[in-house]
Specification:
Elements lengths: L18 E6 L2 E5 L4 E3 L4 E2 L3 E5 L5 E8 L6 E4 L2 E2 L2 H18 L4 E8 L9 H16 L6 H11 L3 H4 L4 E4 L15 E3 L4 H4 L1 E7 L9 H11 L3 H20 L3 H20 L10 H15 L4 E5 L5 E6 L3 H11 L4 E5 L6 E6 L1
Parallel strand pairs: 7-9
Antiparallel strand pairs: 1-6, 1-16, 2-5, 3-4, 5-10, 6-9, 7-8, 10-11, 12-14, 12-15, 13-14
Helix pairs in contact: 2-3, 7-8, 9-10
The structure holds (3R)-3-hydroxy-3-methyl-5-(phosphonooxy)pentanoic acid (PMV).
Length: 349
Amino acid sequence: MTAEDPQKGRDRPEAETGAATALAHPNIALVKYWGKRDERLVLPWTDSLSMTLDTFPTTTRVRLAPGLRQDTVTLDDELLVGEPHRRVVAFLDLIRERSGRPEKAVVESRNTVPTGAGLASSASGFAALATAACAAYGLRLGSRPLSRLARRGSGSAARSVFGAFALWHAARAGYDDPDLGSYAEPVPVRLDVLDPVLVIAVVDAGPKPVSSREAMRHTVDTSPLFRSWAASSSADLAGMRAALHRADLDAVGEIAERNAFGMHAVMLAARPAVRYLSPASLTVLDAVLELRRNGVSAWATMDAGPNVKVLCRRAETERVACAVRAATTGGSVHVAGPGPGVRLLGEYR
Ligand code: PMV
């Protein structure tokens, strides 16, 4: 749409009526989300708590395209088809329904995360998409409703709306509508005292064998340990909140590590087992143990993949990164601190 020639785009199907770009960062859960009690609304069984990173942002641009017959979505210049495309369309449908605007959209998303790094690019992806799409469709949402909406795309995206530490409530008391009761909010932490860093060991950049969506469903349905994991995770959450309040990195790390091991244990007990950890992951976990034996406060967490994230104090980053690098043959090591929440970069209508 140009000022010199306002008629120019009229007969072109892609003529713009609204466009916006947003930037979001991935987050790593220190108390994990694993299992949905409602698949359609993406309502989890348990509360979870994460740190948003300052690295690997996703940038997403959404442009309304009246006349276009279906949404066009590219991720790193690759056209999405099949299930990944269907997921984005279903998400945009929610925004079309709420905004009352039926136009299809062109979505261009770009990840900076190393391919297959298991760094929750769906969290940064759907947080950026929610923000850009709402702006493009003229839907003004505060950060809490935005977090609820991002949740519908990918559960963990609810937390990437916020910077640093965020808690995603599974079901906040006092809401009759369960959709309204499930959102993330920031957890105040004295970052200068805690000064946390995650050293990320990408031991295997291949695609994960089972999607987290599939694996969660299978775990909830078949793992005899699921109920007890959910109960111990809520105790972990209470402990984590207290540890963060005290800015006590040792306690934060200890709880994060046991919570992640619990999540992997519950998957291993599923029938058949879901196993994301590989021998290369165990080598890094051994290095973390060795660091602790040598008096370094370093704690591991792992998600739906073999890569290991090691929490430590910023002052000890080099020592930890060095040990993790030595244990990560053939992979890559990255360092991330607490990062910002999602932000709108530009808007045009
Ligand atoms: O949001 P999803 O569907 O990609 O699931 C994320 C699950 C974990 O990363 C394993 C844990 C978490 O809380 O982020």
